[in-house]
Amino acid sequence: MYRSLIRNSARQLASARPIAARRFAAHATPQPFNWEDPLNAQSLLTEEELAISETAEAYCQERMLPRVLDAYRTEHFDKKILEEMGELGFLGATINGYGCAGVSNVASGLITKAVERVDSGYRSGMSVQSSLVMGGIDEFGTQEQKEKFLPGMAKGKIVGAFGLTEPNHGSDPGAMETTAKPHPTKEGYLSLSGSKTWITNSPIADVLLVWAKHHETGKIRGYLVERSECPPGTLETPAIKNKNGLRASLTGMIQLDECPVPEANMFPDVEGLRGPFTCLNSARYGIAWGITGALEDCISRARTYALDRKQFKGNPIAKYQLVQKKLADATTDAAFGTLACVQVGRLKDNGEAAPEMISMIKRQNCDRALWNARTLQEIFGGNAVSDEYGIGRHVANLFVTQTYEGQSDIHSLILGRAITGIQAFV
Amino acid sequence: MYRSLIRNSARQLASARPIAARRFAAHATPQPFNWEDPLNAQSLLTEEELAISETAEAYCQERMLPRVLDAYRTEHFDKKILEEMGELGFLGATINGYGCAGVSNVASGLITKAVERVDSGYRSGMSVQSSLVMGGIDEFGTQEQKEKFLPGMAKGKIVGAFGLTEPNHGSDPGAMETTAKPHPTKEGYLSLSGSKTWITNSPIADVLLVWAKHHETGKIRGYLVERSECPPGTLETPAIKNKNGLRASLTGMIQLDECPVPEANMFPDVEGLRGPFTCLNSARYGIAWGITGALEDCISRARTYALDRKQFKGNPIAKYQLVQKKLADATTDAAFGTLACVQVGRLKDNGEAAPEMISMIKRQNCDRALWNARTLQEIFGGNAVSDEYGIGRHVANLFVTQTYEGQSDIHSLILGRAITGIQAFV
Amino acid sequence: MYRSLIRNSARQLASARPIAARRFAAHATPQPFNWEDPLNAQSLLTEEELAISETAEAYCQERMLPRVLDAYRTEHFDKKILEEMGELGFLGATINGYGCAGVSNVASGLITKAVERVDSGYRSGMSVQSSLVMGGIDEFGTQEQKEKFLPGMAKGKIVGAFGLTEPNHGSDPGAMETTAKPHPTKEGYLSLSGSKTWITNSPIADVLLVWAKHHETGKIRGYLVERSECPPGTLETPAIKNKNGLRASLTGMIQLDECPVPEANMFPDVEGLRGPFTCLNSARYGIAWGITGALEDCISRARTYALDRKQFKGNPIAKYQLVQKKLADATTDAAFGTLACVQVGRLKDNGEAAPEMISMIKRQNCDRALWNARTLQEIFGGNAVSDEYGIGRHVANLFVTQTYEGQSDIHSLILGRAITGIQAFV
Amino acid sequence: MYRSLIRNSARQLASARPIAARRFAAHATPQPFNWEDPLNAQSLLTEEELAISETAEAYCQERMLPRVLDAYRTEHFDKKILEEMGELGFLGATINGYGCAGVSNVASGLITKAVERVDSGYRSGMSVQSSLVMGGIDEFGTQEQKEKFLPGMAKGKIVGAFGLTEPNHGSDPGAMETTAKPHPTKEGYLSLSGSKTWITNSPIADVLLVWAKHHETGKIRGYLVERSECPPGTLETPAIKNKNGLRASLTGMIQLDECPVPEANMFPDVEGLRGPFTCLNSARYGIAWGITGALEDCISRARTYALDRKQFKGNPIAKYQLVQKKLADATTDAAFGTLACVQVGRLKDNGEAAPEMISMIKRQNCDRALWNARTLQEIFGGNAVSDEYGIGRHVANLFVTQTYEGQSDIHSLILGRAITGIQAFV
């Protein structure tokens, strides 16, 4: 009873296409292996996507890379970079209209990867702008909000920040304390009070998407706070300095003290954690892509070093088994991670990506990138301590990517819940 | 200069398809997550492949699974299983003609996965028949050899074995000692002498593809040794018992003592390690697929146990964080590994798969399956020691899959060589 | 203000002993490194302990080792081994009087290590007899109970078993269901009913220390059930076969169906989990020691194999970096684990060992022994599947040691509670 | 024949001391567990050692800790710290005479641990002064050299540096290129030329112990280069800035250009790598101790954070299983590592420590400290990126300790050679 099916399909297949001949002919000339794309993920891309990827990589390597070492040392973020990204169509790239590029989620992932190949901090700045703020507005905003903010943000002229995490509420944003009450004096305005922390871009942001509990429902709502409209003393965004990682991105707090926000700046329909989680989901998707870029850069740097560095009878250290294993491990994880990103991107384009899929690729890709980057760093021996080799910067950055937008353990529990049907957060 | 490209492609894309609307509509109804196929690899399969997979899974669960516990305990291999596989078209499934199914490499992988979901030993028996022997004959054999052996092997009536590894030469088959000399008495015959070990199916094999060094060239050539034609004392295939794993498959030696083999049974053209390595490459591809089936079975068994088993205030242990993390890790690796298999299968169909790609997925999938199976086994606590739960059997099997057809470290060095251009075997 | 102290002590030390001269003289002739005792733990042992260790090792290697392969294959436990151990003073070795040896806890650990160097199953049989049952009687029994059971148990003539774990209650024994009620017909007797599982030695035990909830208090009490006194049908101890590990030890259930036990066979004072946990603590201490023996045997076997096995240009595989790293890792963990055992043994002799210390060394030594044994097993390549090499048996056994007497995760939570003051079991 | 021994020893022991009574009495009052010293390593210390440890810890916490955050941020090393250490007797503490404290190797280790509990950079500065330079002079110097340098170095008035590693020769110092030739113009002087890098303290060092190949023998010899005596342009010691770790210590190069060094400043007898390796061995012993201090500080900081930080229904995150496991793992490794240090210290005092023992504890303690510090860092979530929590600094430092004075893989191969008798460096 099992039999007919396979025979049938076999027959169909056999009649339809002479695979075997082609296949075995191909065997005769073994295919080359490309360590930079070991499982040929390129074969899954459209021509447009390939073109976008090439452009993005060229820009990032030629224009961004030369700036990053100094930026990291001095914790400086060059705001011009957002404008350059805007010119190239990187910002809000999946959005249709409003001057956005309207590309596929895979293309967007490739852009993200190109940026993070240079530095996770630059990618963070872009992610916040694109996924968290522009994505949020496009998804949940009114037509007026979209038209007001998206075109300028797409150009990188208006800088966005996303205020969810609070000093006492990281993994558990539902317990946030920031509130939106009726403004005591200004008609048609709400008054926002509370404190947000670890907010990328906040010190330079023009528009801050702040999540706060609405006075009537106690439910979380999203508010677009425009810095230029805030009276003195109602909005402060002090920078947080002396960071251990992501030093090429700006991080700060958002301190709201009875800050007046027009009711028209509230997202109209979305309530509860669905709003911020949808935005985060999109950003996490970008992180999963991005960090494969950082990992690939670590591989490339470690490989070059291992080929150049000679120890013991003039052998390049690339000849030693313990070194080769590190390279093999990292290359494998980069290749597997990339395929997973492409797959989720395709599903996302079709509206078929479950949020847990994104938890899965964000968690795994970040964990593996970090683990491998650290292992590759060992190849540099004592030289790893010099920031000139770049790998220490990636290691420090990647630790942060593992902890933000869902710390790795939190994503483990999200997956555990999806697998077992039981939550284990508490 | 970077700019136009993206804008162009964006324009093209925007005009071509209204993705965004569809995408965001989809957001409104979040997609479900399926722990059995977390990244929706099914979406990558053709209808034929899905149908083949369903048939194979049904047969394996209904017909093979009930036999495995006893087979494993007693180290017994039911030869009838090969015939059943033959009836279903599992054997040599990618070969065109000769009664073979001629399916895609992905379909073949799905069959392999279904079999190994039950037991790696059954899959080993099938792999040897299909990939190593039938594949070898189809690739390198003469037309006469193909017509003589393939139809019977496809039916499972003729059982094959593959003799490469020798007692003193495992990872380094190029140093093999088995030789093929002119037969002292039989004209047109070669005389094979030497010893092969860890040969799956050898005790019951009808035809043994033996690799031996040719007396004239010193190069490795392939010979089809037919048991029925061997004079007494020239071919012995003693079984190796008391194995730690793969106990549902038969393993033995091949001892050749001036065994006469007609010259017509030699592969005509292929010389050196290219012959056996091509066969192994194909088998390794099957292993990479197969063990994701074993891992998925471990996940399923551990999940069920964790939901059923209650400890501490009546909580199912699935509620505990340390348990959920194990499930999340395993599920992730299974999902990533499956995507990599699909990708390499597609490339293989197009003649674009490099051997190192197969080293990569064989190594990674085996390593991760073993690691995760062991970790999942911890969930069973003391009960894991009982063979009724099945997971201990998978763990023992998976260790063997990690060591055969290229021990994990050897594949690391194959990858290391491909990445660096330098060999580190010695 | 900090200063004087060091100067003072320095002065004292300088006057007290001319260390430096001796030390630097010693430098001139570098000390040898002994891979079998890398950190010279021997230097911490008394002469008696060294002598005991040598005797135990000699007996185990000469008399026990030759029996283990067959025992493991056939799941047979030779009861005579307990008698031999009894003759040598291995049983209840730390107990004073009753024919027991009365040795230090370190000496006892060394005996345990010698036994487990051969097989964890043999050590399990001994641990149950010594630590769980004899130790329990010596600690909690009445004088009459001690005199009745201990001398025969010390000789290995009376075999003990320890019944705590139940089919539905493993990590959480406080929820046990076995009860002790007044016997309906026999005056002065309690009636025990319930079911225990995974009980080492149960099928051959003469006396079974069963923990059950007392009808009056609901609290757990200990009862010495004598098989010879049990009416037919009230005590069954069916063996559990087809185990994945510990196959050289006997395992079974204890099924009590209104089994009459004289009140005089109840432990007089101890109530609640303190009783069984004290016994387990002592057994766990033995496991921590024992598995270092198993690990050392794995190291020795892997080292020998790596030196004998030649691959690639005739090099012993011991020459390869990836092999050496595995040996270095394992040797380090064995050395560190041994020092920890000696330290806890000394503290135990002085009544200064906290139970959490034993959780720490049991967990760590089991986890590391298992991890390293698995890694060393990789050195054997395909040959690892043969049980003749012995390492597969250790790997299978060590997995069980990780899960019994406190699964590794449970000990993590015991330690976590001790470190944080907060319990995380539920 | 095995029997008598144990019985005898048992008898002796039984007569000698009534252990059991004491032991079981102790059981009645279970001992407390101290997470800061889980296996009671304190019980192994002498009173003097305890006193020294307390003094050192008090100084480091009260005087050094307040300076480290700023020092790390600004890559500034306060030279006064060496003088303070000198006043307290920390420098060259195991040396007898010359104003040194002459304490045991364990006491010296405790001092090192106290310093590295604050920062690995401070410990590095001290190690170079004490172990590498003072230790080298004391071991290999002439009486005149000792009297000239040691008293001032013990006070911290003369700062030392140790020049072994060269830009192209790290793990393989035997291939060094620095040479000592007869000085072309200055009688009785040698002329040193070459370049050393990653030299701790070099920018401020007064005396630099430089290893160079002697022109006559081609063998490596040690030379004491006094900065004050070097003509302009013959000695440069530029600082290396922008380090990824150890930023509280000074690092630089040593550039020698025909630098004249009096023959009297050459170590008289020692030739080849034995000289620098003896010094390194002593320093590595200190590192093994020191990093347990850094790890313990990470544990303490993570524990405090986990108890203070509340997420999900107001629970401190210390309540979550995934957090407790991290704390349990780290605490275990710190405890095991400390015992190993004490043991090797005692053996060192007796001239019984093999160099491979030090490779073992240096490698293991560094590897485990780094792994655990990174894992503990995850507990801090996003807050880990702030340098105020201190743990990121330890993580960055510990990576360097893993790579210097023998990168971890090199020590693996040193151990592998000691275990197998075969070198695998090339």
Description:
- The structure is a homotetramer of 426-residue chains.
- The first copy, chain A, has 426 residues and is an alpha+beta fold.
- Chain A has 12 helices and 9 strands.
- In chain A, strands 3, 4, 5, 6, 7, 8 and 9 form a 7-stranded mixed sheet that branches.
- In chain A, a hairpin with a 5-residue loop joins strand 6 (207-214) and strand 7.
- In chain A, helix 5 packs antiparallel against helix 6, helix 6 runs antiparallel to helix 7 and helix 9 (321-349) packs antiparallel against helix 10.
- The longest helix of chain A has 35 residues, at 274-308.
- Chain A is globular.
- The termini of chain A are far apart.
- Residues 3-28 of chain A have low confidence and may be disordered.
- Chains A and B meet through helix 1, helix 2, helix 3, strand 1 and strand 2 of A and helix 1, helix 2, helix 3, strand 2 and helix 8 of B.
- Chains A, B, C, D: Residues 161-259 form the Acyl-CoA oxidase/dehydrogenase middle domain.
- Chains A, B, C, D: Its EC number is 1.3.8.6.
